[in-house]
Amino acid sequence: MTNIASGNTLAAVASLIGDVARANILSALMDGRALTAGELTWHAGVSAQTTSGHLAKLTDAKLIVVEKQGRHRYFRLATPDIAQAIEALMAVAATGPKRHRPVGPKDIAMRTARTCYDHLAGRLGIALADALTTKGHIVISDGAGAVTRKGSKFLSEFGIDLANAGNGSRPLCKTCLDWSERRSHLAGRLGAALCVRCFDLGWIKREKDSRAVAITRSGQSGFAKTFGISL
């Protein structure tokens, strides 16, 4: 049977995300990496004991999962769908009342390029989606996408094996609403494969303590030559 969320269930999940510390924990995990309780304590801005309680609640609700490696425990978002839901909430929050605070370098970096779980978001993510669509490599409609024959050839030459890209149970190509650009970037196995390939090529690198990514000098050249992108 299909589980349909009741109002009570929806409210329960919303209340979990609604706590500031827990929201900070979930946001910190939005770059797809698994973090330790100590790292998440820093992001949450509360004590280690309080963070432990928050992690237990998020785990019980299946919003996050625990991975054990030896004596260490790492936490990550349970599924890509959780990340997409949080990104959508960020988009809703971004349309709310404007807060009177100056825009700093971290804000600009996040809006330029960042990871959204395992795919690229921000201006870079939108530009990649636009470039692939304009050149006829993918076709997008109603949140779903399909790779064309021309696109399969292009992606293969770029170094992406679509047949073995990521978890086969996930859609190959879908969209995710970008909170900063208010448009859709690429998600699914294709979005994840593009992100990995850009990291492997050294076109992007992670920023410290953030899910923002910096576009390297080789990345500026590579994105321009391969996709016609200039940020």
Write the layout of secondary structure elements.
Blueprint: H1 7-18, H2 20-28, E1 35-36, H3 37-44, H4 48-60, E2 64-69, E3 72-77, H5 80-94, H6 105-112, E4 114-116, E5 119-121, H7 122-134, E6 138-141, E7 144-147, H8 149-158, E8 174-177, E9 184-187, H9 188-200, E10 204-206, E11 213-215, H10 217-227
Antiparallel strand pairs: 1-3, 2-3, 4-5, 6-7, 8-9, 10-11
Helix pairs in contact: 2-3, 3-4
Q: What share of residues are in beta strands?
A: 15-25%
Q: Which stretches are low in confidence, meaning pLDDT under 50 for 5 or more residues running?
A: none
Number of helices: 10
Strand order of the largest sheet: 1-3-2
Mean pLDDT: 88
Counting helices, strands and paired strands, the structural category is alpha+beta
Strands, total number: 11
Distance between the termini: 47 Å
Which term fits the overall shape? globular
Computed Rg:
18 Å
Assign a percent range to the helix content: 40-55%
What does the largest sheet look like? 3 strands, antiparallel
Helix/strand order? HHEHHEEHHEEHEEHEEHEEH
Describe this structure as you would to a colleague.
By secondary structure, this protein is of the alpha+beta class. It has helices at 7-18, 20-28, 37-44, 48-60, 80-94, 105-112, 122-134, 149-158, 188-200, 217-227; strands at residues 35-36, 64-69, 72-77, 114-116, 119-121, 138-141, 144-147, 174-177, 184-187, 204-206, 213-215. The strands form 5 sheets. It has a 3-stranded antiparallel β-sheet with strand order 1-3-2. A two-stranded antiparallel sheet has the order 4-5. A two-stranded antiparallel ribbon has the order 6-7. The chain is globular, with a radius of gyration of 18 Å.
